[in-house]
């Protein structure tokens, strides 16, 4: 019997292309909290061309690489900003490429979760609502509770990139535990099948 002991790999897709993205910093800090439980692997989306079905016959190299990275992961985490009360165009583009061509949905069946942060008080709640609607079509198994609508402040992280506030650390530790458990529940049938 083979027992799988490696940490689950989480493909982290940040919706912002900005080098100073607070959502990237936020996701990186959550990844630090998840050490020893989950292996966060950030997947870049800035090089993806705009989705065009005519490109499906011969996928651009950046698209093929993106789809392979998503497919190889055990789970997916979306970290989305909120632009004009919805998700950024770059993230929508990545979702379209990940789900296409027809029958080659790289997201299908994967455990997934959504987080997001903004300086505003509602913490990307509207964008996350839109993304939840899209997630049903992506055929991911979405963790829906607890929801993380995080308000970003200049002192959110300390000099080491860790959450400075104890309440934030406690909340996000709890979220990491829930996501880890969610992934384990959905991976269990696969692991049992491999062991038998």
Structure write-up:
This protein is of the alpha/beta class and 196 residues long. It has one domain: 3-Layer(aba) Sandwich (Rossmann fold). The chain is 40% helix and 14% strand. Strands 1, 2, 3, 4, 5 and 6 form a six-stranded parallel sheet that branches. Helix 1 links the parallel strand 1 and strand 2. The chain is globular, with a radius of gyration of 17 Å.
Please, how many helices?
A: 5
Strand content: 5-15%
Q: What ranges have pLDDT less than 50 throughout 5 or more consecutive residues?
A: none
How many E strands? Answer: 6
Helix content percent band? 40-55%
CATH architecture: 3-Layer(aba) Sandwich
Domains, number: 1
Mean pLDDT: 93
Instruction: Label the overall shape.
Output: globular
Largest sheet: 6 strands, parallel
């Amino acid at each position: 019997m083979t027992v799988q002991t490696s940490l689950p790999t989480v493909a982290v897709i940040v919706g912002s292309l900005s080098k100073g993205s607070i959502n990237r910093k936020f996701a990186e800090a959550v990844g630090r909290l998840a050490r020893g439980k989950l292996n966060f692997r950030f997947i870049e989306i800035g090089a993806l061309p705009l989705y065009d079905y005519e490109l499906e016959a011969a996928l651009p190299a950046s698209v093929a690489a993106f789809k392979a990275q998503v497919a190889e992961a055990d789970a997916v985490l979306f970290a989305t900003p909120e632009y004009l009360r919805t998700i950024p165009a770059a993230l929508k583009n990545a979702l379209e490429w990940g789900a296409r061509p027809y029958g080659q949905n790289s997201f299908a069946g994967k455990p997934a979760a959504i987080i997001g942060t903004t300086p505003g008080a509602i913490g990307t709640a509207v964008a996350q609502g839109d993304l939840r609607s899209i997630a049903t079509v992506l055929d991911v198994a979405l963790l829906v509770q607890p929801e993380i609508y995080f308000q970003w402040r200049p002192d959110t992280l300390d000099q080491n990139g860790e959450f400075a506030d104890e309440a934030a650390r406690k909340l996000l530790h709890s979220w990491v535990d829930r996501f880890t458990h969610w992934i384990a529940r959905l991976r269990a049938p696969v692991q049992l099948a491999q062991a038998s």
